[in-house]
Amino acid sequence: MAMIDMNGAFSPMGNFLGGMPGTCLEDPVPIEEQAAADATLLSGQLSGVGHRLFAPAGRRRLRAFSSTEAARLIGVSDGYLRQLSLSGDSPRPSNVSLTGRRGYTLADIHALREHLAAQGGTKERYYLPYRNPAAGEQLQIVAVTNCSAGSGKTTTATHLAQYLALHGYRVLAIDLDPQAAMSALLGCQPGLGPDAKASICGAMTDDDEHVPFRSVIRKTHFPGLDISPSNLRLQEFQHGTSRRLAMRKEGLLDAKPFARVKTAIATVGDDYDVVILDCPPQLGYLTVSALCAATAVIVTVNPRMPDVVSVSQFLDMISEILSQAREAGAMSKLSFLRYLITQYEMSDAVQTQIVGFLRTQFGERVLTTPMVKSTAIADAALAGQTLFEAGRETFPRAIYDRAIESVTSVSSEIERLIRASWGRAG
């Protein structure tokens, strides 16, 4: 925009705004330099604020579990657990009150599992459910996906990862969503600290910035659960989508672009039983690469008609792309595909009708238990926690019990599918 000066000539609006005639603003700093300077300034301030408000994974502490909770997780009676704690030859709980009330950390629970498994017998695999590669039990890679935001994808993926860790599995969570909600829930604040740039993105590049995938995996405050966090750099992996999709029409498609997630996971697969992939809420190369790596897929579905229509379109698009990826040899063998109803309100008659419609269409591919819509889940997330961390005393009991029953039932059903893929019963 320009203004006419007193001599009738055009002058830039910036000069007009600079002040009296004969004065002008200094040359502005180039936007890329100003952006870099502001990013450095803001990052430094956020690091201090973030460490005060959000303890990093190394400082976060998972709550202690009551003896009843610990016994349920291990799969023994509370009375037997008490006998173990008094026997003197098994790991003791870390917290014992003056009244004799026992509190078990997750590390205590894992130690008890190992103690019971070491006794041998038919229950060794029951107490310590690690997969057995020698028996053909392959690493299970579970992709939780939907092309729409707000479908409960991250809530499902995070609770599932924690549930499996609580039950003795070695779990790796990979946050593929540049928004990094799962990373935050598991104690890795995106953009803060020395790991600000850590993500699987560095392991998927072919350039000089390539890093081993193991170097970007972090421990969480859940023993047995590791995470590859996310950050906005993952968005760079989406940039080649249009070009590469055009290449497949020209018959130039090869497996390498689609197999990047699969290739990275293969370098650490021996360390884990299950990998959980939290996919971004759009159909780009991160999602496609995740689906190519997956041995199991959970599609979250909100029981509202616009969301069901969106899922229909999503399935149609991925079927075309994945068929091309299969021709290129990039696809893994799929153990199961399931649809999970999320944000479900049982009192909503329309939602109930839609759920019935989906069950009629897909049958057993719709998980039996829906993930209910609950203020307990939402409020825990606002505090940077899951229901497993928050504890029953944090919410009205009826609300918490309903929510935790839903989360546990969903995760348990997926666990049974994983075990079935290994040829295990129950």
Q: Could you state the order of secondary-structure elements as H and E?
A: EEHHEHHEEHHEHEHHEEHHEHEHEHHHH
| Rounded radius of gyration (Å) | 26 Å
Task: Please identify the structural class as seen in this structure.
Answer: alpha/beta
* Low-pLDDT residue spans: 1-25, 49-58
Average pLDDT taken over every residue: 82
User: How many β strands by DSSP?
Assistant: 12
> What strand order characterises the main sheet?
8-9-7-10-6-11-12
Which features does this protein show?
single chain, 426 residues, seven-stranded mixed β-sheet, 17 helices
Helices and strands, with pairings:
Blueprint: E1 2-4, E2 10-12, H1 13-17, H2 31-53, E3 65-66, H3 67-74, H4 78-87, E4 95-96, E5 102-104, H5 106-117, H6 124-127, E6 140-145, H7 153-166, E7 171-175, H8 181-185, H9 201-204, E8 218-219, E9 225-228, H10 241-249, H11 260-266, E10 274-278, H12 285-293, E11 296-301, H13 305-327, E12 336-341, H14 349-362, H15 375-382, H16 387-390, H17 397-421
Parallel strand pairs: 6-10, 6-11, 7-9, 7-10, 11-12
Antiparallel strand pairs: 1-2, 3-5, 4-5, 8-9
